[in-house]
Amino acid sequence: MAALFVALIHYPVTDRNGRVVTSAITSLDLHDIARSARTYGVVAYFVVHPVPDQREFAGRVLEHWQTGYGRNFDSRRREALDLIQVTNLDEAIVAAEQIAGARPLVVYTSARASGGIGYAEMRARLEREDAEPVMLLFGTGFGMAPPMLERADLALAPVLGPGEYNHLSVRAAAGIILDRLRGH
Amino acid sequence: MAALFVALIHYPVTDRNGRVVTSAITSLDLHDIARSARTYGVVAYFVVHPVPDQREFAGRVLEHWQTGYGRNFDSRRREALDLIQVTNLDEAIVAAEQIAGARPLVVYTSARASGGIGYAEMRARLEREDAEPVMLLFGTGFGMAPPMLERADLALAPVLGPGEYNHLSVRAAAGIILDRLRGH
């Protein structure tokens, strides 16, 4: 079974007007996606941000849960947050390669991706015995800006319900996509 | 296809020590679950809280998005938040019955439910032409306290990944369960 990685992208992402911006790291993105990652057997969750101050903020939140008061508060939260590495994308890919022994296939996710591969196909690919490692990219803000698509090896199809509305939060979308790829 | 309702329960829920408590309404629970509800064709999202002050807080958050500055900020958010009714459980069941024309089947969800029905079975039940309305209950805090199970007609099986850890956030769990029941 493939070693599965998750990366949460804060730049380049778009705002509601389609402008390219850098989004802020939020505490709940760390917690919620770490808990989903842990539930679905993700090996590491990379929080990717270009600004050192923002990475330091995330580091302080994590330190609270890993060594401070929070450590005793809830061991299941700590177990999830232990998956997090705060870094940039290049270093995340290197770290994943070091952990898994091969460069990960980088997979773009978006509510607006056209021509992405389907979930059954991706799931089967992850379950092959000789499966390559996979890193799923999730965008904050209003989704990743187009240059991120060029960094990826392939794109996943959007998550759809019965209608056309598919404006999920990244916290829900990450959980749903992990469940489609690894749920029982 | 069944009329599907969601209710987010703030009392009685448990804290990390298993004590029965009332949890606070949080803004992100409103937003994230409303967006998932809208994506999966949910008819109404009931935010269930016993304390009037808390219901007023939720009402003010909603008013901001429905009539104030937020209305123009992002119409997709407003479209999701329009699904919300802040109420208590009895009134939520009455409101669902008035909307759907029949009393909803009340379905308990929990990471620790044993003997709950599976997702394929529940999905098939929702898709029947003569399907009865269904209301999914989601617990905040560390999950609903046992008395809530007695209010429900049946329980859904827990969401599982490949391992034993299943400490998902309610925001992720609600998205995943809606996707399993209504995703395409």
Characterize the structure shown.
2 copies of one chain form a homodimer. Helix content of chain A is 44%, strand content 17%. With 184 residues, chain A is of the alpha/beta class. In chain A, helix 1 (27-39) runs parallel beside helix 8. Chain A has helices spanning 27-39, 52-67, 69-73, 75-81, 89-100, 119-127, 146-151, 170-182, and strands spanning 4-9, 13-14, 20-21, 44-48, 84-87, 105-108, 134-139, 154-155. In chain A, a hairpin with a 5-residue loop joins strand 2 and strand 3 (20-21). Chain A has one domain (4-182): Alpha/beta knot, CATH 3.40.1280. The longest helix of chain A has 16 residues, at 52-67. In chain A, the strands form 2 sheets. Chain A has a 6-stranded parallel beta sheet with strand order 5-4-1-7-6-8, with helices on both faces. The A-B interface holds A 1, 16, 28, 31-33, 35-36, 38-41, 73-74, 76-77, 79-80, 159-163, 165-169, 171-176, 178-180, 182-184 and B 1, 16, 28, 31-32, 35-36, 38-41, 73-74, 76-77, 79-80, 159-163, 165-169, 171-176, 178-180, 182-184.
At a glance:
Chain A has 184 residues and is α/β, with parallel strands linked by helices. Chain A has helices at 27-39, 52-67, 69-73, 75-81, 89-100, 119-127, 146-151, 170-182, and strands at 4-9, 13-14, 20-21, 44-48, 84-87, 105-108, 134-139, 154-155.
Topology of this protein?
Two copies of one chain form a homodimer.
Chain A: E1 4-9, E2 13-14, E3 20-21, H1 27-39, E4 44-48, H2 52-67, H3 69-73, H4 75-81, E5 84-87, H5 89-100, E6 105-108, H6 119-127, E7 134-139, H7 146-151, E8 154-155, H8 170-182
Parallel strand pairs in A: 1-4, 1-7, 4-5, 6-7, 6-8
Antiparallel strand pairs in A: 2-3
